[in-house]
Description:
The structure holds two protein chains of two kinds. Helix content of chain A is 34%, strand content 23%. Chain A has helices at residues 3-9, 55-62, 85-95, 111-115, 117-121, 129-141, 157-169, 187-203, and strands spanning 14-24, 31-40, 44-48, 70-75, 78-79, 96-99, 175-179, 207-212, 223-226. A five-stranded parallel β-sheet of chain A has the order 6-7-8-3-9, with helices on both faces. A four-stranded antiparallel β-sheet of chain A has the order 2-1-4-5. Chain A is globular, with a radius of gyration of 17 Å. In chain B, strands 1, 3, 4, 5, 6, 7, 8, 9, 13, 16 and 17 form an eleven-stranded mixed β-sheet that branches. In chain B, strands 2-15 form a two-stranded antiparallel sheet. At the A-B interface, helix 3 and helix 5 of A face helix 1 and helix 12 of B.
Amino acid sequence: xxxxxxxxxxxxxxxxxxxxxxxxxxxxxxxxxxxxxxxxxxxxxxxxxxxxxxxxxxxxxxxxxxxxxxxxxxxxxxxxxxxxxxxxxxxxxxxxxxxxxxxxxxxxxxxxxxxxxxxxxxxxxxxxxxxxxxxxxxxxxxxxxxxxxxxxxxxxxxxxxxxxxxxxxxxxxxxxxxxxxxxxxxxxxxxxxxxxxxxxxxxxxxxxxxxxxxxxxxxxxxxxxxxxxxxxxx
Amino acid sequence: xxxxxxxxxxxxxxxxxxxxxxxxxxxxxxxxxxxxxxxxxxxxxxxxxxxxxxxxxxxxxxxxxxxxxxxxxxxxxxxxxxxxxxxxxxxxxxxxxxxxxxxxxxxxxxxxxxxxxxxxxxxxxxxxxxxxxxxxxxxxxxxxxxxxxxxxxxxxxxxxxxxxxxxxxxxxxxxxxxxxxxxxxxxxxxxxxxxxxxxxxxxxxxxxxxxxxxxxxxxxxxxxxxxxxxxxxxxxxxxxxxxxxxxxxxxxxxxxxxxxxxxxxxxxxxxxxxxxxxxxxxxxxxxxxxxxxxxxxxxxxxxxxxxxxxxxxxxxxxxxxxxxxxxxxxxxxxxxxxxxxxxxxxxxxxxxxxxxxxxxxxxxxxxxxxxxxxxxxxxxxxxxxxxxxxxx
Lengths: 234, 392
């Protein structure tokens, strides 16, 4: 479903809407508080803040990887705080594409199989012909079609990153979440990676949420979530 | 189960060939050993009892009944005490049974050479597939396996094995003529050579004939000769042979009653006759009569005890393998924690990880079963007839 249509169908123009979030790790002094957070459909949002301020925790909360202690989160129009763990997983694998800082490709799969990984592990998403064709066409668009038979160990850093982005896009998600995708890259590669993400988000009509600690990149985003603010994200 | 899980598991298993191979091998061994042991014991039991059942009773010298049974039934290479001809004839004269003599202990080209009489061939159902049964002393008929192994056929000759190479008092080897090859029976008879009793006595040095050596020795090897002596070259190889010349003068150098046998197959007329004969013979101090099935049953009781011990060891091995597999899987979960975290974060189902491990284990188990099955098939095919091994 088109994300705009999906969100509108639920009476919302936001891909993510969070209110009164409270979260703490058991036995840890860390506390996360978010009063209000909204990311509209189609936005390019950055989440910024110093190390340890809770950027990754916020991403985990917003995508339903962990449940908050209190508060309400809506993802793609669904209140994930009211959903079971299984329902949150099912929603995440269908509607959210994740790109991790270390890419997290499985070294025993080929690049092609890594792209199709969400289909292999989802309960009711077979890796059918359409999915396979989409994987190939995204890889072609990302310029990594020639690497599809190779394993991650034989790919360059840039190729691995592109494969990770392909994996995030293959399910045609409404939201692409990237956890410090440029953390290990030089400025030129960082710029190329962001170009790629913006292009692909636009091409797939997806909302983009990028976690970064690089303030120099913020001009490129239309929304910034500042985790260093005293009251948490807003 | 989803094909994707199969694909992931297969890829994972293939990417770790050493770990997978070791695990599969350990599991395969723990399956192979008890199964193969049971199959071997069952086969051993089947073959042993089949031969024993085909032999109603055995008479022989007093001593170890297992030796008597194994040597007489399977031609095992052990030295039985002498069973005297007079004891044999006393038994045969009762008319209570058919008694078939056996003279064992000789060998040719490493195969047991069995001296017996024509009744043995009738009793065991042995018929030549080529040639004839032995016609005169010095003739032999080969078991099918011997003929195949030595590539011999009727008309060829075979020397008896020397019992003692450096004792010049021992008679020389006997050159024997192959008159026939027996049809294969799948019994220890296939792996033996048969001749008449006189031939074994010639090999024992108890009988011989006299011939003209000047006719049989290559003239080139004769260094000097006089009326009653001949000197031959060191290249001359001494052996005996039953020829038409020596056959006519063949004679024994021992009293008939003292002629040595090893045992006798006793086929009693009926159960009563068998009981009477057994009681009569076993009352003697120097002879014994046994029922092979009883002896083999006692022998198998030992085998089953060993099997029970092996079963226990197999259980320990299986437990160790189980622990090893568990440990490997546990270590694997720790090493793969990051991979599993990735699957969780992208939204894999809660039981996906468990399914992945279960499928990997299943693949390894299937590989182990294939390995174990192949091993069992190969072992069953390659392992020789166990009863034949008793002859060694």
